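Minutes, project check-in

Agenda point 3 was the complex the collaborators sent over. CS summarized: four entities, 949 residues total, and the question is how they sit relative to each other. Sequences were read into the notes so everyone works from the same version.
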Amino acid sequence: MRSVAKIKDRFKIPGLKSLKVNSNWVFHFDGSGCDGCNAEYIACLSPGWDIERLGFRNTGNPSYADVLLVTGLLDEEAKRGLIEVYEQTRPDCKVVAAGVCACTGGLFDGSKGILSGADSVIPVDLYVAGCAVRPESIIDALMEITGNDTNKGTPEGEETA
Amino acid sequence: MNKSMFETTEYTSRFLQLSEVKDYRQLVYAAERMYGTGGFGNSVAMCTALEGAAEVVIPEKAQYIRTILMELSMMQENLLRLAAIAETLNFDSLSMMCWTEREKILEILDDLTGNRMILSMCVPGGVRKSLDPEILEESLDELNVVMQKAETIKGIIAEDSMVKRRLRGVGVLAKEAAQGSSVTGPGAKGSGVDIDRRMLGEYGAYRNLDFVPVTETGGDCLARCMVKIREVIQSGELIRKAVENMPEGSIRSEMPAGINGEWIAKIEQPDGVDTFYISGSGSAFLDEIGVRTAGESNQKIMDRLENVTLENEALIRLTLGIDSCLKER
Amino acid sequence: MIIKTILSVLAFIVFAPFAGAILTGITRKISARAQGRDGGDITQPISDCIALLQKGRGENSGIQGYYVKVSLFFNVLAGVLFYAGMDLLMTIACLGLGIIFMVIAASVSGTYYSRLGADRLAREMVAAAPMMFMVAIGFYVRCGSFDVKDLAMSGPVAFLPLLGLFAGYMLIPCGKLRRSSFEYRMPHAMYQKDMNSIADAFDRKDAAICEIGSWYEKTVLYSITYLFFANGTLLMTAVGVVCTVLTAVLQGIIENIEPAADGRRAFKSAWLWAFVIGIVNLVIIYIII
Amino acid sequence: MGVMKIGKSLMNSLFAEPETSKYPEGGLKLSKASRGSIVIDEEACTLCRLCGRRCPSGAIKPDRSQSRIMIDRMKCLVCGECVEECPEHALSMAREYVSPDPSVLVDVYRASARVGSDSVLQGIEMPPEEIVSSEEKIPAVSTKEVQRIKRKKKNKKKKKKRNKKRNKPN
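CS then shared the predicted structure for the full assembly.
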């Protein structure tokens, strides 16, 4: 393999790494929440919003993931599971905490056995607000964390009545 | 109302612990987040219990608004269950069809109340704000589109030979077994037992909307799925009736500072009947809260079903709506 | 002659993955559109695979990496034999070996879902085997030899007399290549949309190689459908190419027509269809033509 | 022959326009009643702390000592309870929702100089003191453990570099 690397350097052939490809893989970790944010992320995969057209792909293996999406209320079992999943992800895999319960524990912060948000377990890169987080803000977050930014949250054009 | 009736039910430890820190007004928001997709029903249950304990009668218009929003939230939850069932059968196109219909109903809820699933519209003593009449008219013809699509989905579930082969005769529950047990919702309606909390008219404007609960006689998974899709169509008609004869008037009545007394409220949810028991002794912080969700009461029926194999077990739990509600909040 | 075969073999090795990826992309796009979704663009499988390769090798690469590479080798070998004009039976045998090594790779990797997927893939292959050999026998009866050279260049078009075999071939590969035809996937959570049960426990690079292997396999299977139309003239090759694209579109639709049949019924129907239609068609050819 | 029952609707959805919304390009469609985020009119606010008492999740915290109001955007359920309770109508509901943020966004607003009376809070019952400050609140994972996880990921990278160096015959 080393000879191939040498040839590549001499003739400056753009290696596979430099190709900019629009395909990001998302791994969805759901704490034992009220299933609201979980249903909203699945709504993103369903025909209503369909993030597959934007190049995102849902995967079941954390080592493939570009983005680790954490939703729902985190308690003891979720903490063990989250740490185990986080250790399998790649070093430059970004973490997005979607929903008020995943960001700061929301309404149930301070309850017995409830962790106040995902940042008390793993380092989080982006927080998304909203109780039952809206699919628009999930798409905003995914687009922003993978580098292609959008018109964040500001309504464009006419607002429907 | 002796307390021993509730010794068997398992209190929600965290819900009870929350009630020490939050007064009854804030607890309605916690009740709403017991299971997010069908949250509005739980907030109506909690508010009915609070109003009952404080002997407060809420205005008629608030009852109508609650009925409309409850039927809309039941429609989207039933469609979510059907999408999950079609997912288990690997029937992706039917599952995606249910998701698109659910998306349309969520848009209506978003226009009416500002939020998609957890509406925070129901407050003790009535409703937070009244529904905008023009948006209500627009959403009615949007509902017609959803109702037609629900008819095609019903046709697919009823006649598709492969779906019938996978669903018929699976997890059969006889009518006598259903009557004798604590199963409610599609589990009971699927086997011909027509119990429906909405008929008693304790909450909402169901007294003036005459309707017959949906029942099927098969008793198996196919009958339960048919009950779910026929309930979606029935909710559409109920909403149209409620919108037509919605009275005018105030939407909220005064609630006392503290709750003195106890009350049980039972609300019909897409998976069954949710029971809320509250008791307070004059202060804003309640003493006793008991919650028995639909999933729990349906759980005890699993050993009375026939023809349950390892392969279909996940399917049966979905049609009965057993593991839909995670109570440990 | 030798240069022509070497050229066609080299063309296969270079262009087959892209052709297979585009066909997979067409199937994915059509099945998304049939569900009302606006699926990604046609070249999405290629960018997915490149994204996986860019991420380099993971930690749990174990022994399944070798089996996946061997399976890729046999899929490529099947294509090489086919485009070199050699024996059709050899190509089908190599395809079978490709799948066998994929099954071993999936069952070696140890997690529950990949073992489930391995069992599913093995059943699919056994269910599809009789139909494939029926097709080979059909070609042999029609023009006297198994070699792809003679089949491609011979006179009358093979589509009409072998119509039954063509329909059977359409159903079995569609059934075989359809992701969920025999799926026993038991979702522990009802929204578990991401368990595709074969490449799930693989390492990143092995999953990409497995994907490329499936592209090669898909091009070989589609070029067999192309063989039904080919008789050397330019017009028929164009018709053949159009028909292979149509089969990709058809698969996108067939995948959504009905839920997964439980294993036993789909297995019986595949064998029943293969023998009844195959024999009836062969008898017709033998007597009439 | 009910096998192809879904075929008809498959066909029309195949040729019809897909139902996905073109969200990032098509701009954000907000309904009139949309509850986006809470906005404060700093002049009208008299720091009477009624909103802090009514908030179900404790997201809005009026602070009299430094005369400021802090709204924790990542804890606010946008339920509208504080907008309703404010006697001075200083709070209102904006329609744009809070966009994703790399940090837990807490907006701090300067309240006006005049401080309102405490009479508003008279009728409100405060939660019993000893329960509010209950210690058995689960201590969050100490930052050391989070660092440990980060370090563990870094040594993995170093280990790879080391193996590369080791099996290179020099």
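Noted in discussion: Chain A has one domain: 21-145.
Follow-up: revisit at the next meeting once the mutant set is ready.
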